[in-house]
Amino acid sequence: MSQPPLASFGPPQNAHAHIQLVSVMRRIPVALALWLASILTPLAADTLHIIHTNDFHAHIQANKTDAGAARIAAFASQVRRESGAVLMLDAGDAISGTPVSSIFEGEPIFELMNLMGYDVGLLGNHEFDHGIEKIGTFLDIATFPLLSANAKNASGGLIADAPYWLGDLGDISVGVIGLTTPDTPSLTTPRGNEGIAVLAINEVLPDLINTLRPKVDVLILLTHLGHDNELELAKAFPSVDLIIGGHSHTLVAHPVKVGTTWVAQADHYGKHVGLITLDVDPNAEGRAVRSLSGGLVSADELTALDPEVDALVNHYESQVAERVNQTITHSTRAYSSDELQPILEHMLKVALQADLGFYNRGGIRDSLPEGPISARMIWNIEPFGNSLVRLNIKGSDLLILLSQEQKLHHAADSIDPDQRYDLATNSFIGSHAKLAFGDSVTLQDTGLMIRDVLISHIKDRGLP
Ligand SMILES: [Zn+2]
Q1: Distances in Å between the alpha carbon of 249 and those of 92, 185, 239, 243?
Q2: Which residues are bridge partners to 223 per DSSP?
């Protein structure tokens, strides 16, 4: 290999040609095969290919923008056929986002991921959506390890299969360390997750790097921390070769180089799949990774379908079809997730005849198109199965709650800190408010599913 030694860090030599190829293949799917052929050196002992996804959120069905499980599987098979060492990684939040995941509590997603060929997965925050007992079921179903070095149960034990994965791919030894966002306890339902702790990265990572770095040619962090945090991590731990990230749903068109470490993330919902190629010299004195190139392949370029995965997707989809495919109204316009926030809040307020409705923006997981609106679309907006709760809360506490929103909440200006309010919200917000404010709030759970409340409101009154 005539690659420059690793010490001379600059853009990879083929970066420009690579970008051109990628922009060409965005227009011509046929070019995908050519691109693959150009970067996949058949059976080269010193080349490692990494396929990666993150924040798939159970988007197992193909549609206009999402590749779907069967097309990602066919892509992975194609890469494996055309090259030697391939590692397929998922960076967490594989579940929660569609009716199949909600109704079957995430389990089908891991069955599908087995067939799709994943080698290593990660616990994101959403893997905790059904409580840690259910994570035990996920670990049983998955035939590949699910990692997290920093997620601990109430007795301080590891929740995941393992903190890291070690393996040899041809002559190349690889280590993958899994890290879950420390924000998980505040991002997930407290029910079923009592006593969990997700440790700060600095509490676990330095020791793991000291242990693994001397043993491997390629050291990868598989992380669910968000792109900005992952860039910071690259700065702080320069002996890491590559960070495969997730959580912020960021489209990172090409891996970003920070010092001596590359940082990648592949969008979300299977809209893109990441493919990275590393040239590795296992006999090198210092760092074995000599160069890295790669980028994202978009869903519309993935046309082949894996029949076995497709059959399993259809098996599960057919079981939920009757329940979710009914049209509940016609919309004369499209609504973004941001636009939906006050609309959904109004629906909750009406349902409880409360003073105010509050629907956290982060809990609105999809937008609505113009045209027929199906119940499925509401399930995709609220995949979590939260219930409608009434929260009696002091204005000053409510302002703290609203200040957690990324953008200033539209109701914040009209809240009197000294007044008490009857708030209609979801059980996620309700349970966190109870944890934060204790006896100064009263919480009453109606037991009604938020999505059922929204569906019946829209059926009766349509969209504004
Ligand atoms: Zn996440």
Answers
A1: 11, 19, 25, 15
A2: 179
- Tell me, yes or no, whether 330 and 312 share the same domain: no
Q: Look up the CATH number of the domain holding residue 407.
A: 3.90.780.10
Same domain, 329 and 312: no
Are 261 and 409 within one domain?
Answer: no
pLDDT digits (tens, 9 = 90+) for 326-383: 999 999 999 999 999 999 999 999 999 999 999 999 999 999 999 999 999 999 999 9
Q: How far is the CA of 339 from the centre of ligand 1 (A)?
A: 22
Residue 371 CA to ligand 1 centre (angstroms): 30
Burial of 154: CB neighbours in 10 Å, binned 0-12, 13-18, 19+: exposed
- Residue 366 CA to ligand 1 center (angstroms) comes to 15
Q: Which structural domain, as residue segments, surrounds residue 349?
A: 325-461
**Identity at 380, one-letter amino acid code:** N
- Asked whether residue 243 falls in the same domain as residue 347, the answer is no
The CA 306 to ligand 1 mean position distance, Å, reads 27
CA 180 to ligand 1 center in whole angstroms: 9
Is the same domain home to 218 and 346? no
Q: How many A from CA of 221 to the centre of ligand 1?
A: 16
Same domain membership, residue 263 and residue 129: yes
Q: Is 99 exposed, middle or buried (0-12, 13-18, 19+ CB in 10 A)?
A: buried
Q: Is residue 3 part of a domain?
A: no
The pTM is what? 0.84
Read off the pLDDT of residues 75-100 as tens digits, 9 standing for 90 and up.
999 999 988 899 999 999 999 999 99
Kindly give the distance from the C-alpha atom of residue 384 to the centroid of ligand 1, in angstroms, as a whole number: 13
Q: Calculate how far, in angstroms, residue 249's C-alpha sits from the geometric centre of ligand 1.
A: 8
Distance 328 CA to ligand 1 centre (A): 30
Q: Are residues 357 and 305 in the same domain?
A: no
Tell which phi-psi region holds residue 96, choosing left (phi > 0), alpha (psi between -120 and 50) or beta: left
Domain end, chosen from 293, 316, 339, is at 316
Q: How far is the CA of 330 from the centre of ligand 1 (A)?
A: 32
CA of 188 to the centre of ligand 1 (A): 10
